Amino acid sequence: MGRKKSPLLRTSRSRSTIQLGTPSIHPDLAKKHEEAALLLKNIKQQLPGLEKLLATADDHWGTEDGVYRFYHQSFKVYGLQPLTLEITKTLQKLLPGHQLNDWFAQIVVAGTREKFTPDHNRNWTKHTRPIVEAFFHAHFMLKMVCKYGRELSEPQQMLPNGWAAVLYLFNLR
């Protein structure tokens, strides 16, 4: 039985060297690469606004106060919900018409759908952990979008983990 040749290797009859061939790219992968390039382009165009939103999320009244309010058992933790929704809507606008990752969407919905009622105090973490979790996920994605919007000039073949997470957010991995 003959050995199966790799599509990446070609042998030349006139020479005894092995040359790397150009692999053909599956159309779905080529499309995702094009979409990733468009995403990166859009991120770069919107980077000043994205960084301003990140600064808002990072400031005292964003992450610091919101997480404190969770542990303080204050209804003010619900104040993270509008910021989480603003971040999510901003991320969605980076690739219009492209659905965000289902898990991310489920986390955001779970963390933004409830409004405070006094009976939430009896089972505090059941009602408020999803709020903090949704904010953390949205904040992380915004942070990675800003970081790689500054650092990358084009989509990479060897992906940094944070950029790979962003691609998962937009279902491009």
Summarize the structure.
The chain has 173 residues and is mainly alpha-helical.
List keywords for this structure.
173 residues, mainly alpha, two-stranded antiparallel sheet, 2 strands, elongated
How many E-type strands?
2
Fraction of residues in β-strands: under 5%
Measured between the Cα atoms of the first and last residue, the distance is 37 Å
The stretches of 5 or more residues where confidence is low (pLDDT under 50) are: 5-19
Largest sheet: 2 strands, antiparallel
Rg (CA only): 22 Å
Please tell me what the overall shape is.
elongated
Helix content: 55-70%
Overall mean confidence score, pLDDT: 87
Count of DSSP H/I helices: 6
Order of helices and strands: EEHHHHHH
- Quaternary organisation of the protein chains: single chain
Describe the 3D structure:
The chain is mainly alpha-helical and 173 residues long. The protein has one domain. Helix content is 61%, strand content 3%. It has six helices and two strands; from the N terminus they run ββαααααα. A two-stranded antiparallel sheet has the order 1-2. Helix 4 packs across helix 5. The radius of gyration is 22 Å and the shape is elongated. It starts with 8 loop residues before the first strand and ends with a helix. 25% of the residues are buried. About 9% of the residues have low confidence.
Please give the structural blueprint.
Blueprint: E1 9-11, E2 18-20, H1 27-58, H2 60-71, H3 80-92, H4 102-112, H5 124-151, H6 161-169
Antiparallel strand pairs: 1-2
Helix pairs in contact: 1-5, 2-5, 3-5, 4-5, 5-6
